[in-house]
Structure formats: structure tokens, C-alpha cells
Amino acid sequence: MTKPLPDAEKLLALLAERMRPWVSADTALIGIHTGGVWLAQRLHKVLALRQPLGTIDVSFYRDDYGSRGLHPKVRPSNIPFEVSDADIILVDDVLFTGRTIRAAMNELFDYGRPKSIRLAALIDRGGRQLPIAAQFVGDEYAVAEGEQIELTKNEKDELSLVLNRARA
Amino acid sequence: MKIQIKGGRVIDPGTGVDRTQDVFIAAGKVVAIGEGPSGFQANRVIDASGMVVCPGLVDLSARLREPGYEYKATLESEMAAAVAGGVTSLVCPPDTDPPLDEPGLVEMLKHRARNLNQARVYPLGALTQGLKGERITEMAELLDAGCIAFSQADVPLGDNEVLLRAMQYASTFGYQVWLRPRDAALGRNGVAHDGQVATRLGLAPIPSIAETVALSTILLLVHQTGAKVHLCRLSTADGIDMVRQAKSLGIKVSCDVSANHVHLSEMDIGYFDSNCHLVPPLRSMRDRDAVRRGVLDGTVDAICSDHTPVDEDAKQLPFGESEPGATGLELLLALTLKWADEAKLSLASALTKVTSEPARILGIEAGTIIAGARADLCVFDPQARWTVQPAILKSQGKNTPFTGYEMRGKVRFTLVEGNVVFES
Amino acid sequence: MTSYNLQLNAQGELQHLLTIEGLPQEIIVRILDTAHSFLSVGEREIKKVPLLRGKAVFNLFFEASTRTRTTFEIAAKRLSADVINLNVGTSSQSKGETLLDTVANLSAMHADMFVVRHSQSGAAHLIARHVAPYIHVINAGDGRHAHPTQGLLDMFTIRYYKKEFTSLRVAIVGDVLHSRVARSQIHALATLGVPEVRVIGPRTLLPSNVSDLGVQVHHDMENGLKDVDVIIMLRLQNERMNGALLPSAQEFFKYYGLTPAKLAHAKPDAIVMHPGPMNRGIEIESSVADGQQSVILPQVTFGIAVRMAVMSILAGNP
What we know:
The complex is a heterotrimer.
Chain A: H1 8-19, E1 28-32, H2 35-46, E2 54-56, H3 65-68, E3 87-95, H4 99-109, E4 116-124, E5 136-140, E6 147-153, E7 159-165
Chain B: E1 3-12, E2 17-26, E3 29-33, E4 44-47, E5 52-55, E6 57-59, H1 75-84, E7 87-92, H2 103-116, E8 120-126, H3 139-145, E9 149-151, H4 160-173, E10 176-179, E11 192-193, H5 196-201, E12 205-206, H6 209-225, E13 228-231, H7 237-248, E14 253-258, H8 259-263, H9 285-297, E15 302-304, H10 312-315, H11 332-343, H12 347-352, H13 356-362, E16 377-387, E17 406-416, E18 419-423
Parallel strand pairs in B: 1-4, 1-5, 6-7, 7-8, 8-9, 9-10, 10-13, 11-12, 13-14, 14-15
Antiparallel strand pairs in B: 1-2, 2-3, 5-16, 16-17, 17-18
Chain C: H1 25-41, E1 56-61, H2 66-78, E2 82-87, H3 99-107, E3 113-118, H4 123-130, E4 136-142, H5 148-162, E5 169-173, H6 180-191, E6 196-200, E7 216-218, H7 221-224, E8 230-233, H8 249-256, H9 260-263, E9 271-273, H10 286-289, H11 296-316
Parallel strand pairs in C: 1-2, 1-3, 3-4, 5-6, 5-8, 6-7, 8-9
Helix pairs in contact in C: 1-5, 1-11, 2-11, 5-6, 5-11
């Protein structure tokens, strides 16, 4: 019997409280485009972090470039703080195979040598293909084959989770 | 050999006769049309039902590439191409290597051609030595060796004084001078018509005035000297207008255009198709339409193939570096028929442009089917469709802008002096 | 006759970049957007991304050019590609090998991408028609025909400073007749919807059918620059300056050189561009080249990002 889809807003609040004891004012947050950026923006505010928010687009580091080509919509990465020696938390909406996180880490290391990298994900859907784990998770949710779970935002900037057919 | 061509649609373009009837050939001549001579026993009967029987085509320009350019084509291959195209008489320009400015070279060419027993070759002698435009050639000697007229091929003659003297000299003896109007300086580094295509593609331009400025000079010199001049390969609307006007003023000139210019324009260059790199260049659609009007109203007397075989390597180069020219002997008939279709002309009218009219310009006995004429004939299937592919061309020049085009009209038999020299 | 678009594959994806003519607007915009992301790569400590790792990019320059070749080399290396430079004057071409033979030999050495510059219009098209299906060709300038990456970086520059295209007046000044850069710019400006493109120059330096390209023709620079938002100065080559096209560099500068006085006719926030290298005192006065409105140096930086974008989009397509 499939679990009902969690409420993204409630999950976000839960995730923030899970993170709170483990972050300091100097913790740097980097959101992964696009869902991760929305989450990171909200977390950054709720956790009152001092370091400016970073955003990262992993298109240039993906491992499927050879088979799928360059992503049609690439956005600039923007990391407005010194990566070397920073305590960084990467934020993504859905943790799945772990390849996006691998790409994000590779990209981060081209900026400098961070002191530590942790991962916060709203949803962990299992199905890891690489040895990657999230330190902070909102909820676990198993998604059927051929489907995917996505974070969306409405005009009032309210977040919600939806299930869609998986893209090829 | 006695031959009866049975049941073909016999067209004599010069007289407009167009009737299904038999043609009887003996001893190299047409002995009768319609009713056979009594007691005529044919050695061979050719079934021409459904076909057209017309005079062999007379092509006013076909480069055979000998002597000197044997890597581009040889006499054997090009003469085979000629008869495959139904061409029984052809004129070759003097721009061989060395140019045809020595009687010995002309004799050798004529001798080689004669031995092949295919089309008749009428070489043009060089007007100036080495085609350099400085000293006139020994025209009498060249004529004796077999030249039919004198020409500068595509090499512009920049010195008007020399041009005047050459025309005066030729006119003394009534020799014909064939000139392609091309100014020596205007557009001399150009490779494409100065129009929208050259502008977009960044190709060095050749303006129309490169033709018309030279043409006006030639026409004035004709008026001055009374020389018999044939104008080769007109390509511009303004040039055609000038010839029309000159003829209406009584100036005696004749002119031809290439079959390529009857059909194609600069637009066919597409993205740098070097098969469309021609001399003169393919011009605007307006120019092409004027060429077609000129052929229709008689301003243009003849259509020729301007057959110019080019080796593959010389075409597989960026447009401006590629060698200009297109193969054409095997396309002349089909292109003429295509024009006839589009202009809604009778076959007889259209065929005058490649038979009786060029024969008249040359002053040779050809281009007619009447009793007593030499049996130079072409029998073709007017309905047969075929696609232009390099592999099926007999010419060594596979370079044609018409690759892939579907053509109508296929030669089945070609006869020269009563002998079947080609059949398919 | 080539009636299909050689640059796009059957799926409409970019296979070669030969000319801006015929490129859909979406592809141009995608290249500009992607280039924007590559700009930030150039500001990091490690200015590389691994996209073209293991790929071989061959720079085939049949016409000498240190600047353009260097920017392509930098762009390829920032994508982690291996770069081989061939200045054909010293290699087999001068020994009589045909263009296509040179290309075939290099393809056999497992090239993935050719960046080609040649003095003849159409050379890049010829090469693209003959390479193996998996090899991508980028035209780095062919004769007078096209210089698409320059056109694209010029559009990137305009978008960077002016934000959008649909209300701009752009003037291109100088030797349009011989300029592949101008032709590429004109096509790009038209595709991106710039409503008014002007060319300014003497009759001898403008093609006779230039208005067929959709531009307004001006022979008077002051009128031509009136209320213009973008001024693109073209380079005047030495060969043009004496002889039948122009009497002298001085006379050209007098009528068509960009000075502060002439610049004042344009909008006060107009930007001044030049594909480089500049001839100071002939096309442009130093005070303008080095002045507030000049974006000539940023053009160079943008050129690397744009070329990275083109290469990474091409290499990602089959």
C-alpha cells in the first residue's frame, strides 16, 4: 500500500529542526538547482545563517553528458563565499542514485578544498548507485519504477511534492 | 551500309516538317524520306516507333581536353559522350594545352578525331598566339589545317587595339571570329555573379557589366570592321537586350547561350556547390529569364552544351578555388527538351536551337534531314525518363549541376555519315 | 545542390557550427545562455570543467591567426579537451596535399572536433560535408563568408549590456564587403529580432546587394550613428587602404573613423564594440577605444565563454 505523498512545507520545517542543532552561524549552504535552491533559500532564512547562500548547477559535471549531451537549460553556479576551509551543507530536493551529489562535490572541489561537506535532502527515495548518504533527511519515500517524485513551487512560493512519469 | 529507320516521328527543325515516316540511308547519305527508293534492300532496319528521328545535334562548344588536359578527359571518352548525347558535330574551343595556335596541333586533333569515326570535330583556332592577346595567329594556315573560325576561348582580350586589328584581319578573308564578351579587368578575380548569393556567401563578385562593357566594345568594333562575329555564352539580361538591339539595327552578329544558363541561376549554388561554379557565372533569376526570352524570340540563335569536363579533385575544393565548368554533351538534348516543355514550344522549334541554327552559324552541311543530306541523325525516345547520375555518364567529367535531376528524352541511336556510332 | 541544413542533425540538434544563417533562434539563445554559465567558470580558481575530457580538438588554421586560435585553445582546454594546433602553412597542405586529404588524415588520428579557419568562403562547409559522422566542425572564419563564433560573442556582448534585442538600433561601420564578421553579425541580429541594423561605409566597401540582407545603408557616419545603441567597428585591412577601394587610411579615418565627436551622435549609453585587432587611428580613436563606452576588452572574455558553450553543446550531440 503506497504511502501518501508528504506535505513539502511540513517536511521542510521538520528538516530545518533536524539541522538546527548541527549548524553554526558560519555554516555555508549551497542549493542544487532547481529544487535544492528553493529549499536552501528557505532553510537559509529559517536557520538564520550568516554566510551568503550559494547555488550550484551540476550540468558541467554530470556523468551522462556522453549519452545525453549538455542539459538544454544550464544556469550559472554562484558561490559567493570562500569554499576552501568552509563547512558546507549541500541541499537537494530528492536524493536518488547519488550521481547528482557526486557531480556537485566534484564541482565544489574545483572551487577549493572545503573543510567538510554534508548533505540535506527533503526526500530520500532510496535506489543509491554510489556510496553517498544524506546527513539530514526530511522523509524516506519509495517511488515506483517508471515514476519520479519532484518538488514544485506555486505562484505564492509554496512548495509541494508531486509524482510524475519518469523522463527518459 | 543500307539502313531503313522505320516508323519514327521524323522532325526536320529547319523546315518544320514533323511527320511519322521512314528514312532511307545509303552510302552515308539520306537517300529518301517517306517512300523508299524502289528496290531498296536494307542491311539493317531500325525500329523507331515511338521515337523521334531528328538531325544529329550540332554543339557549338564542347571541350575535348586534348591536347594537354588528358587527366581531365580524353578524346575517346568525350567523343563517346558526344554520340551518347546525340551530338554528331561539335566545335571545340582553342584553350587546350598548348592552345590551338599552330596548324600542326590542329591537324593532329582533326586526325585523331577522324580516326575515332564518331562525331565531326570543328576546332576553333586561337585568335592570338598562345591566346595571349598580343599577336594574331596565322589564320589562313589554321583554316587550312581545319579550323572553322577563330576565338579567344574564355581569355579576355584586354587590348582593344589588338582586338580591332584581329577583327579587321579576319574580315579581310571573311573569317569568323567567336568572342565571349568579358572585360579583362572588371570582376577579374570574381567567382560568382555579383548578386544576392555572392553577397550572402562572401564570394568574390563578377558584375554584369563585365559582360556588357566588353559586349558594347565588340559590337562597336563589328560595326567598324564588318567582321563576322559570333558571340559566345551570353549570360546577362542587359547583354541579351544589347544583342537584340544590335540585330534590329542590322548589325550582323549571331549568339549562343549555354544550356546551363537556360535553366539555372545563382540560387542553384546553394551552400557553395562547386558544380555550379561556371564561366560565365550563373546569374540572377532575372538574367536567366531574359536568356530564355532571348532564345524564344531568336535574339539567341543557338543553345550549346559548353561541355567542360573537370576532374573530381578540382571540384572538391572550396568554391573559389574549384575549377569552373560542367559536363554537358550528354545533357544537351534533354535540357533542350526540358526547355521546350517549359516554354510550351513545339519540338521542331526547340530543336532548331541545337541543329539547324548552329549549323547555319557554322556554315556547315548539318542540322537537316532532307533527301541528299549527310546521314547524321539522332533517334531518341522523347518519353524515356532517366536520372542524371555520374556513374552513367560516358564523359570523364562527372561534374554537373544537374546531378540527381530527372530528365526526359533518351538517345537510342546516333548515326554519323550513315553509320550507327551509338546505340542503347 | 545542398538543400538541407548541414549544421543540424535529423533531430534538429547542432552538429556543426558553420554559419549563423539558418540557425534557429532557440539554438542561438541556448548558446548565449550556456555561455553565461561558463563565464563564472573563468572566475574560479580551477577554470576547468570536465565536459570534453578525453576529446581531441584539432585547430586547423589554413589562414594565420594567433588571437582566434588562442581563444579556441583556451576554451577547449577549459573544457579539459586535448588540443592539437595545425598551422597549415608548415604542414602537409603546403606540400600539395588537398584540403580534403588533410582532413581525412587528421580524422584517422581520432579527432573529435575540427576548428577550421580558411581564406576561402565555403571551406568549412566543404569539410563538414566530408568528415565522418561523429566529428563536429566549427567554422573559425572562412573567406568573407562567416565567422559564427564572433557573431555569437558579439550578440552575447550586446545582451550582457543591453539586456534584450527587440528595441535596439545597431550600426556596423567599415569594410562590410570583405567582412565575414559583419555577415555573421547581420544574420544574428536579424534572427534575434533587432529591428534596425545599419551599415555605414563608402560605396566601395559595401556589397552591391547589401540591402538584400535587410540592413539600412548609410554613407554619412554622423547620420548613420544617430540614436544608435550599439556601434560595431570593423577592422580595415591594410590591403584595402591603398588603391581602387580607398585612397588612404587618413581619408578613411576622416569620414568613417570613430572619434568622440562622432560617438556623441549615438545614444549617451551606446556601447562600442570591435572584433579586434584594432587599428588605432584608422577605424577608431584611442580615446574611444579606451573610453567608458568601449566594451572591446570584455568581448574577448565573452569570446572564451561563447566558444566553450559552442564546443560543449556540439560535443554532447551525437
